[in-house]
């Protein structure tokens, strides 16, 4: 399957516009409801693996302020520089989530407004990555589109790529990688139209 050329420009776009993105996102937390829900299910002092952490604003900030530790992973060096400057006591890793192999497991994994920038085949390949890094009982939360296909947004005048699988395929992928589905909502009107998946790794 061919993809829109913007699918391969996401990292460079975020590198070039990191400061602008951070400034816009700091006070734009329409998705707070789901991050609060995620935090409410975490054990005290949990360590969260934040895949595609961006600048750490406002999601990582909220989790850190709520007592969690965050290990953030992003492909954008400029975004990670903002993270390190703002949250120097947390761990920030320059890596591609698609090939991540930290040889560690976490109490929770978040791929919030990042996973949906991956091409459909890359999204499928992420589920073994989620599984490898999830401790028994770990939470997993990510955003997708509402149905299979590609969607093109615009940021700072440039095309910003998004893609999604069908809901039935996400449900099957979660189950086949030992995650139970806790909650799913398509295009949540209370959350800026986000389509959200929340699962939990089954205990061994």
Automatic annotation (TrEMBL):
Q: Which CDD domains match?
A: AdoMet_MTases
**Primary enzyme class:** transferase
| Swiss-Prot/TrEMBL GO biological process terms | methylation
Looking at the Swiss-Prot or TrEMBL record, what is one Pfam family this protein matches?
Methyltransf_25
> Which molecular-function annotations from GO does this UniProt entry contain?
methyltransferase activity
**Domain Methyltransferase: start-end pairs:** 48-137
Q: What is its EC number?
A: 2.1.1.-
Q: Which keywords are on file for this protein?
A: Methyltransferase, Transferase
Specify the protein name: Class I SAM-dependent methyltransferase
Give the organism the record lists.
Pseudomonas machongensis
């Amino acid at each position: 399957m061919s993809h829109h050329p913007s699918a391969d420009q996401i990292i460079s776009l975020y590198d070039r516009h990191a400061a602008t993105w951070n400034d816009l996102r700091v006070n734009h937390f329409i998705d707070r409801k789901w991050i609060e829900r995620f935090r409410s299910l975490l054990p005290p002092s949990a360590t969260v693996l934040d895949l595609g952490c961006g600048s750490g604003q406002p999601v990582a900030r909220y989790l850190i302020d709520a007592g969690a530790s965050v290990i953030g992973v992003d492909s954008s060096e400029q975004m990670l520089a903002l993270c390190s400057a703002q949250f120097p006591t947390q761990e920030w890793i320059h890596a591609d989530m698609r090939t991540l192999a930290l040889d560690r497991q976490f109490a929770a994994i978040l791929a919030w407004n990042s996973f949906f920038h991956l091409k459909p085949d890359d999204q499928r390949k992420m589920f073994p990555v989620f599984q490898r890094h999830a401790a028994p009982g770990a939470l997993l939360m990510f955003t997708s589109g509402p149905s299979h296909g590609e969607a093109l947004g615009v940021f700072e005048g440039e095309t910003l790529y998004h893609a999604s699988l069908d809901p039935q395929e996400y449900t099957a992928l979660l189950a086949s990688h030992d995650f139970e589905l806790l909650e799913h909502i398509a295009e949540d009107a209370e959350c800026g139209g986000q389509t959200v998946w929340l699962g939990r790794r089954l205990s061994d």
